[in-house]
Amino acid sequence: LDDAAAIQAALDGLQPSQWLVFPAGTYHQSKRLVVRTPGAVLWSEGATLHATNPQDQAVMLAADGASIYNFTLTAVTGARLTTPWQSRIAVYDRADRTTHLRGNVIRGNRLLHGAPGSATANSASAAGIIVYRADAFLVAGNEVRRSLADGIHVTAGSRNGRVLGNTVRETGDDMIAMVSYSGSGDWRSETAQSLAAIGSAERDKQLVRNVLIAGNDVEDSLMLIRTATYRGEHGFGQWLSAMERHGVAVNVGSYLGATTVRGYAMGRMEGAPSAPQLDTMRAVVRNAMKDGAFG
């Protein structure tokens, strides 16, 4: 089943500010759906959009005022990916666009996953929701679960927006992220200083600013597992086993933190460890490596 061509034809036939209403049911999309009409609204009356192509699965709001309300969205995913069209909902036109999209709304949508280990174990190949170079946008009342990248990702100079009352769970990366890159787009080398050093025109394109983030409910169940108390010399192995029992959205591995080891053996004490404390640290590290730590 594939409804992508029919849906895209309906979208392309919209006049400015018209609505496309989806009756209850499941609609299959094998590729991105692009809303190019200003002010167009996608409205769900109990509809589910199911994406079948991990490489190309977004609903893309590519015109001023284009908006989407009240859908349930599911997806087939594989490895973690990165582009807007591999997200599930994107405010995005094209990467070289120099002006901002304006007035887009993403509200009341549910990005849900299937059973762990299944093809639908995650809700999006990349971020759940991406907002790219947008102005006066609203992302509100959505639910994002198990996206392979960020839950909600706002970037590329987006400004004057609101991210309100969303529920985000178990994402592959940040829950809600405001991200400013300069020309390299390489997060490993970007700093506030490097962004400030670029020209004003480039900075205006890239610096995310004046975005209100309020009333969101974010929780990573893996974080709850991480913060649970697993004591003893095999606590690391107990923690890994707990994650495995819980079921994870992506493959995971962990290093054993030096501060964690010190805190286990010494609490908040300052100074050098005593000989017994050092022996405890050695035992914890040795057992963690046996139990599955990467390093």
Shape, please?
globular
Beta content: 25-35%
Helix content: 10-25%
The averaged pLDDT comes out at 86
Number of DSSP-assigned strands: 20
Helix-strand sequence: HEEEEEEEEEEEEEEEEEEHHEEHHHH
Please report the number of helical segments: 7
* Coarse structural class: alpha/beta
Rg calculated over all Cα atoms: 22 Å
Low-confidence blocks of residues: 221-228
The major pleated sheet works out as: 12 strands, parallel
Distance between the termini: 47 Å
Any key phrases for this structure?
twelve-stranded parallel β-sheet; 295 residues; single chain; alpha/beta
Q: What is the topological layout?
A:
Elements: H1 4-12, E1 19-29, E2 33-35, E3 41-51, E4 59-61, E5 67-69, E6 72-75, E7 89-91, E8 101-102, E9 105-107, E10 110-111, E11 129-132, E12 134-135, E13 138-140, E14 143-145, E15 152-155, E16 162-164, E17 167-169, E18 176-179, H2 192-197, H3 200-206, E19 212-214, E20 217-219, H4 221-227, H5 235-246, H6 258-266, H7 275-291
Helix pairs in contact: 5-7, 6-7
